[in-house]
Design a protein that fits this description.
Elements lengths: L2 H8 L5 H34 L3 H28 L2 H19 L5 H17 L3 H11 L4 H18 L1 H11 L1 H22 L26 H13 L2 H16 L1 H14 L4 H26 L4 H18 L7 H12 L6 H12 L4 H30 L3 H17 L15
Helix pairs in contact: 2-3, 2-5, 2-6, 2-7, 2-8, 2-9, 2-12, 3-4, 3-5, 3-6, 3-10, 3-17, 4-5, 4-9, 6-7, 6-17, 7-13, 7-16, 8-9, 8-13, 11-12, 11-17, 11-18, 12-13, 12-17, 13-15, 13-16, 14-16, 14-18, 16-17, 17-18
């Protein structure tokens, strides 16, 4: 059944934008599950091959770095070969790469599969995709759409962890690779059947508008991606957004997303129980980031970011002084989970306001590149600190202090004039 036929089934009942949103939620949830797997593989790989945590963390750092770097080019590719083809290509790469990762027995294979290829495939379904889908299909509730998609990407990484940890414990680490490869592969036929290229292709306008705005001019994807960077780099607000988002990645995916399970294991928590703590964060992140999207449609996104970064920093500083018992870890799971990637919707809304709806997806993707460079720095740096000191204590204190700095940086972002917010 073609997307146009499915759209006719829902005509008069629900706008097809919500169907696209639900489908993209599942796609980003499944690819996030792929990216979650390395967190439960650190200790099993260490036990299986004798690789130290610094080596394994370096491979994950490569993954995170490529994930961020490929995003702007994937966002440009969505405007050249199309949204649907870009997503299908990413899912095929992920399915093959993760399936092959179950056969590795050497360090270079770890770097090739979980490092390079998974980073490449996952990067094409990063936050640039959320901005592209929200801007293409929504005028009304755009912030909410960004919040839902962002929540699926982050929460998926966390919610999958107990399942993957249990699989690793019962069936071995190789089975983890094959399970998550299957998740990615299942999404391929769904995208083929249900995803239209745009509202116009099925005779609709975006939700909240009768007519879809003209598509941006097509061109060379590399030139478009670099052009977006050049435009952003001329703006001081871009660097303020990029700096705060670097800290976001440094304090979220890179530190907590990669090392919290290992930190809990160091403090006597069983692997599956540790993964359950992180999964609990995923549930509350789904709530927090969705609510953040709703708030971003209604309130000053700069003030929202001030509170998000400040509260995140406080939670990271307090965790190393806790007793790592059920009460303290549950409290951290709730408090930090509500804030895990709540920063993304207001950041996307600010980018739309400053740079315009058409330019925003590529510029958001460059911001996410900075986010992932920060995450890669923390993933490798925290592993190095653990090797040198035997503890993650200093890594969490440094990250918490950086978040406090970010809460001040975002207040310096200027409020655009109405003319500046016109789509460019």
């Amino acid at each position: 059944m073609a997307p146009s036929a499915v759209a006719r089934l829902f005509a008069g009942r629900v706008h097809y934008a919500w169907i696209v949103l639900g489908l993209m939620f599942l796609v980003m949830l499944s690819t996030a599950g792929v990216r979650a797997a390395p967190s439960v593989l650190i200790v099993p790989l260490q036990n299986a091959f004798g690789w130290d945590r610094a080596t394994i963390s370096a491979a994950l750092s490569l993954n995170i770095g490529i994930y961020g770097l490929i995003g702007p080019f994937a966002a440009a590719l969505m405007q050249t070969i199309g949204l649907k083809r870009t997503i299908l290509l990413a899912l095929v790469i992920l399915s093959i790469a993760v399936a092959l990762s179950g056969l590795i027995d050497a360090k270079w294979q770890l770097f090739l599969t979980w490092g390079a290829l998974v980073g490449l495939g996952a990067g094409a379904t990063a936050g640039g995709l959320a901005a592209t889908v929200a801007n293409r299909w929504f005028v009304k509730n755009r912030g909410l759409a960004v919040g839902i998609l962002t929540a699926s990407n982050a929460s998926g990484q966390l919610i999958f962890l107990p399942v993957l940890a249990a699989v690793a414990e019962s069936d071995g680490w190789r089975m983890v690779s094959w399970v998550v490869a299957g998740f990615a592969a299942v999404m391929i036929p769904l995208v083929l059947l249900l995803l239209p290229e745009s509202p116009r292709s099925i005779g609709l306008g975006p939700l909240g508008a009768e007519v879809e705005p003209p598509a941006p001019p097509r061109g060379n994807a590399v030139a478009m991606a670099l052009g977006g960077l050049a435009r952003g780099a001329r703006s001081g607000d871009f660097w303020l957004l990029a700096g705060s988002f670097w800290i976001c990645g440094f304090s979220a995916n890179g530190l907590v997303g990669t090392h919290l399970i290992s930190y809990c294991i160091d403090n006597g928590i069983a692997p599956v129980a540790a993964a359950s703590v992180v999964a609990g964060m995923g549930v509350f992140d789904l709530i927090g980031t969705t609510c953040s999207g709703w708030l971003s449609d209604r309130y000053n996104p700069r003030i929202l970011l001030f509170w998000y970064y400040g509260l995140r920093g406080l939670s990271l500083i307090l965790l190393p002084f806790s007793s790592f018992d059920a009460v303290s870890l549950s409290a951290f799971s709730v408090f930090y989970g509500l804030d895990f990637v709540a920063t993304v919707p207001p950041t996307v809304i600010l980018t739309n306001q400053i740079f315009g709806r058409q330019s925003a997806p590529i510029i958001v993707a460059w911001l996410i590149c900075g986010h992932q460079i920060g995450a890669a720095t923390a993933a490798a740096g925290a592993g190095w600190i653990r090797n040198v000191t035997g503890s993650y204590f200093e890594a969490f204190i440094i990250s918490g202090a950086a978040c406090m700095l970010a809460s001040l940086i975002v207040l310096r972002i200027s409020k655009p004039s109405p003319a500046a917010a016109v789509p460019a």
